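Form 7-S
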Amino acid sequence: MRISTARLPELSWRTAVILLLLASLLVPLIVGTDFFFPYVVPRNIFFRVVVELGAAALVLAISFGRKTLDLRSEPILWSLVAFLAAASLSAAFSPAPTHSFFGDFERMGGVWAWLHLVVFFLLLRVLRDEDWSWILNAALAVGFFVGLSAIWQHSSLSTASLLPAAFVAASSSTVGNSGLLAPYLLMNVALAGYLASTSVRHRRFYLGAGGVILLALVFAENRSTVIGLVLGTIVGGVIFASVGAASKRKWIVLATAGALAVVVAGITAGVRAFPASSMTRHVPTVLQRLALTNPAGSDESRTMQWRAAIAGFKDRPLVGYGLENHNLAWSAHFDPGIYKLDTDIYDRTHNQFLETLATTGLVGTVAFLGIWFAISLTLVRAYRAGRLSAPAVSILTGLQVAYATYLFFWFVDLNSTMLWILIAALIASRGTVGSVVLEVRGADTEAPRSRPALAFAAIIVLVAALYAEGWTPLRANRALAKIDSSGESVAQKFSEVQLLSRSSARQTAHTPIMMAQFVGSFRPRLEEIRANPTERRMLDSAFAESFASFARQIHRDTLNDRLYTHEGELLLEASHFYQSPAYEQRAIDAFHKAIELSPHRIEQRLALAGLYTGNRDYERALVVLIDAVKSDPLLGEPRYRLAEAYIGAGHGDSALAMLQTSLRLGYVGAPEIYLSIGKRLEFSGRSTVAARLYSDYLEAKYTEAVWDRSEAIDRPIPTADIAVAAHLPLLYMRASESELAIKTAAALSAFDPSRSKLVDRFVSDVGARRRSNWVAKNSLLPCASSLNARSRDAVAFGACGVFRRKL
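Output:
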């Protein structure tokens, strides 16, 4: 079915809707400054305001005139409404209903977001056949611009880095995230193909635009989209070969799809077999990443989320945790193995189907799958009605397969999902004839029906929505951005804290955490602030408002362990500022609650142990940290903290064992604790054991490159580490470990190449058995002379003092 090129429609309510729909397509180009999550919040609020204005225009048009809505033959619309109802039901029974309904600033999702997508679909169904060319061409034009931006970004990065194109970082264009840019470009590739199939006159133009966008998609380097593109092309090719005209062209299309699959599979197999070959360096990065995918290694963080989602579904199989609440399932079924791979904070499953299963249960999952079924049903109906050609139905079906494949590894996002909804509305318009708005025309004697009450209600709802879910979250978001900004004055930040405390915005899951971080930034000045009445009143107010914000958010989200952890840290700050045991006890209670909600996450255990250690209550700290070690024996940090507690409790050998294990596990803490244990060992005559600890510490921190004299360590070196490097060879020399003494002396050269002559002299003396020059020394550095020449060699002066200090 060809979409005709329409002239500018006559001014009417429909014109207003079309203009608003055209404006909504600018969403991927909107990036606000001074916003908290600038790539998410401004474009989501803009989209919602535009959709709300369009919905009001539609209601006003129906309120006055001979217009009615005919929604009887709209399976896609009703499937969307069914999913919205299921999501609302899930949110109503969610442990965090507000978050489920309204989401937060990081994602701007939830039921409220899906409601606007459903209304967006309805507004698109208002369009007549002749109106669609405006929408589709405008969408493609915006996508073309975004694609050009991605290509320019890739070219700029390649030029700036002087690296081959295959090694340049993924392009994110105006979307801000390459993983979310890719599906948006995928939608535009399909739009270009669809428009090319419906317009012979402009086919070359559309194919050229599609080629440019496809190149940008490659530069986005998203593996999921490439897999989806290949699968979608194959499915589309099979459909075209099955339903297309009996000609050679359909076999060419099928052969091209098969060739694409063979090429992609062959290249990825070659890269996987020969990852270090010269040919691999010229393969697009996305195919390299695809070839090196390892679900049991670097990509295991995704499968961890999948397992947590499945376990979360078992917890609440009927209605789930509620949209936007994957983090609750993740906390309840936390896998501490994530610490070795990635951040421990996940609010997405990175599998939309499993996330839907965990967050909306069976009810929501069936409804979500129903959307795909309705789209498929409408595609068949449109083709049978002759309103979609074989190429068009092949492209649109292939797109559904490609997007579903992408969603198997990612999640819905406004930029791409709004285009998916747009294409679903396009399919619905091909499945029926005309708009869903029926207008009575001609010499009908019946007077137009007026519904002023409906119109008045629409205006009231519009104003309320614009204020409550447009202006209010906008102000709150700007306030959060100012609190998070380093360029704002302290007085301005205090003012924004007060604004947030009075705000009724419901997307502010980050608000108490950001307020707590702001208050915590004053820790170095607590004594000074306590003595200043004006600043003390301001900080008193900030504490009170932060605690009130935590109380509100915890009431909304009672199972969120991270809220209790951050509240505990804020309570601990208050206990220091007010010198109040009551605040400290509340902090302990908050940490215990966080541990109860997520037993395998270590942050709350470490925070609680830190509190006990600060109070020198080492026995309680040991109990907490031993449990932290048991939660995942392969993590190094809990063992390091346990070593600190053992030192405080006077268990030196246990502390040594924990330090050695933590270093083997790859965790390196502050130098002071290694120096403390090392000095104790030397004092007790166990210098060789101390030397091994120092050696393990340097190697774990700087890798084996620390023993390579020809390779300088290109990063700042703490004075304590220079002291260890200058002291370590002497310990091995005294233990008659000449080879280790010579080997470890190289660390001082690696840290400071200007000391190479000094190291050469030591190596020569050790090799020639002239040890008398060094036996009485504590350091390779000229410590005696540095005492008299502090200004000339400050590094040596500081390092020499390290091993003269008391334990």
